[in-house]
Amino acid sequence: MNDQSSVQMVTRDLWFGSRSTRAVSLTLAVLLAVLVSRPEPVDAQVFFAPPTAVSVGINFEPSLATDGAGNWVLAWDRTPDDYLSPSRHPNSIEISRSADNGATWSAADTLAAAAFAPQVATDRVGTWITVWLDGSGIEMARSSDNGRTWTTPVALAAGDQPQIASDGMGRWVVMWSTSSRPREIGDIVTVRSSDNGVTWTVPTPLDASGGAQGSNGRIATDRAGAWVAVWDRGFWPNAADVWFARSTDAGGTWTTPALLSNDAGMLWEFQPRLATDTKGNWLVAWREIHTWMPDLAPGTDQDILAVRSSDNGVTWSTPAFLNTNAATDSIDQEDNSPSLATDGNGVWLATWEWQGTFDRQACYHAVVAQSTDNGTSWTPPALINPNQDFVKNMEQEPEVVSDGAGHWVVAWSLDAPNTMVAAHGSTCGNGIVEFGKQCDDGNRIDGDGCSSSCQNEMLAGDSLVLKGGIGSKLQLASRDPAIALGRGDLSSDDPVLHGATVRVFSTAGDGVDLSYDLPADRWQYVGGAGRNLGYRYQRRSGAIATAAVTPGHLMKLTLRDQQLARLLAQNPNPVQVVLTMGTKVYQLSFGGTVTFHAQRLFRSRSAPAPLVSP
Fold it and tell me: Could you read off the pLDDT of 50-78 as tens digits, one per residue?
């Protein structure tokens, strides 16, 4: 088999398994492999569980909000199944709720009939407001019970594409475009409320001089006085640009609109989205169609551009590509419908809809990229749900939101079958070991046994001696600065409270695998509870005789068990040892300088930390 055939087969098997025998061109295979490959573990900060179905049917335009207390509301636009029928029913606004950070969702309720394009927001202290479009213009409704019930809809004004935000102090701003007809540029206008949406001001142009015109607007606030509005202006095939304005009085007045997308050579820039960490950092991302690449036909490649601000939107960086494959993706690969969110603690996510062609069939997929430097650099785009049929499952319009406490939710529309789905995620460092994490010690620090991407860090082994015969015995010691206590005394990682387990095994030789319990009543604190100086285990009878863990210094273990002699039938190099205390996992691989005598002795000295988890 030649090299090209090898690449084709490996790529095909990666996506489709043995079910497919399609031939895949090398060029497309490599490009798609780059696109959908997951970021390396060192880059991953947020991990997502497989998505769950929220509503079966033809659903679009998801909008998410959370109060930071476990409650989430998801609103979307449902298209009737008989949409091709002359007598079809109109679209409707559907609502679903989650009280467990997106793990489960309520059955969908209809909020409004003959309506579409919903946007939901909350002040995080009890009030939720949804705005949407119907045949007469923009309407809104309020909820004070986390979306279970809603007030009678209230008409706000004529317009298009409403957006809404709240600062959590009773003040709300709704923003929209007055344009409701194709190829017409309308004014960007706002209404405000200072009583949690009970009453509203009259619609007012964002810029009295008429400088704020366009569509696809978005608005956000840091909840501390800074508000930023973004929108685009232009119609195909003429150039379009992204604009912004700021307010420091809850939308009462705004700065003179200014350009964000002023790069020369860009043709069409639109669909801006924005997010802030409430610490002065803001990101704005948008979809663009560019022509400057020599291998691209005009207007045929679409990518995601982004700008950053560290002074609450006063100044902005030069636009740069967010999707790292912008310079190498092919003409028929498009990136659009971006969404941005941050946990406010250094982690930012961008999601968007990737479109491409595979085997002459259009594919649409929800992808995610992650940043830990306020958007300066990003991981390569990765599928949010890699466990799917890459050809049949069509994913569109992913919307991502974080509660700022380590929980994330992404919602998107899925075709084949038609479903609104949501995937909940968690940030590395929230102290919970779940989907995709090997460990989580409550921080994102390397070198303490659990890496900054919540993967186990391997430990170096100074010595291991395994003796056979009657009373087989194993003794080991590791002196490694990465030895840590997880979350420490009195936590779920405390063996004095919860005990521990030891696993000794080898994939070499006869492949022996042994496990032992270290019950809690035999563990003691070193220096007393709460001082986090280490743990000591001692038992006169049983397989585990002694154990000790001292942070940043030493781990020791002594086992006596006749079964250990099974490891000496053949050379077991290397011998793997795993000590588990709650979510804290210590992994060692004893190879290095080895002495072996069948049935009698295995000795390992100066074993380096293994590169990967055994």
Answer: 999 999 989 999 999 999 999 999 999 99
Please, which residues have CB within 8 angstroms of residue 367's CB and are 6 or more apart in sequence? 35, 36, 351, 352, 353, 354, 381, 382, 383, 384, 398
Nearest in space to 523 (alpha carbons), one of 558, 552, 499, 559: 499
Distance from CA of residue 569 to its chain's centroid?
47
Q: Return the half-sphere exposure (C-beta side, CA atoms, 13 A cut-off) of residue 24.
A: 25
Helices marked H in 180-266 — which ranges? none
The whole-angstrom separation of Cα 192 and Cα 167 is: 12
Strands (E), 83-238: 92-98, 109-113, 115-122, 128-134, 137-143, 154-157, 160-166, 172-177, 186-193, 204-205, 213-221, 227-233
How confident is the model over 352-391, as pLDDT tens digits?
Answer: 999 887 767 778 899 999 999 999 999 999 999 988 877 7
SS3 of residue 133 by DSSP: strand
Structure tokens at 117: 């394009």
Task: Give me the DSSP letters along 548-564.
Answer: EEETTTEEEEEEE-GGG
Residues in the chain: 614
Give the count of beta carbons closer than 10 Å to the beta carbon of residue 271.
Answer: 21
Lookup: tokens for 529: 């509870």
Q: Count the neighbouring beta carbons within 10 Å of the beta carbon of residue 328.
A: 13
> In the structure encoding, which two tokens stand for residue 511, read together?
């492949």
- The amino acid present at 242, given as its one-letter code, is V
Question: Residue type at 111?
Answer: L
Spatial contact of 12 and 33, defined as CB atoms under 8 Å apart: no
User: Which residue carries 């997951």 as its tokens?
Assistant: 38
Q: How far is residue 243 from each of residues 157, 232, 248, 263, measured CA to CA in Å?
A: 23, 6, 18, 13
Q: Which residues of 394-431 are buried (b: 16+ CB within 10 A; e: fewer)?
A: bbbbbbbbbbbbbbbbbbbbbeeeebbbbbbbbbbbbb
* Pair of tokens at residue 218: 């978005």
Strand (E) or helix (H) holding 159 = none
Instruction: Tell me, yes or no, if the pTM score tops 0.85.
Output: no
Three-state DSSP at 6 gives: helix
The pLDDT of 246-269, averaged and rounded, is: 86
